[in-house]
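Lecture notes, unit on protein representations.

Consider one protein chain, 116 amino acids long.
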Amino acid sequence: MPDFVQDNHLFHNPVEFAMSKIGGTYKIPLLWRLKDKNWRFSELQKSLSHASDRMLSKALKELVQDGYITKAVFAEVPPRVEYSITERGLRAIPVIETLRNYGLTLIDEFEVNHKK
């Protein structure tokens, strides 16, 4: 496949393009959590306690912009925001599951001490 440009970024292959959309520290964990239910922002904050509010907000915003999740704002006091996965996001779940399983296999192969 020849190189291509999207949003002023040069991509050399489809894997690089896909990883630009779902890769990074927080996007895959966010999609993984949203696959089963809607989450409020505060729930996601607690679940990903190592993520700063800024980085979590940035990842959520990018996932919304790219059509992987939707954001619903409810006019309540205090305001309530919920995120849910879209069809595009659901199509990414098998890919994420494959990567997760491969990662677990590598953890065992490299004899990494971890919590299960």
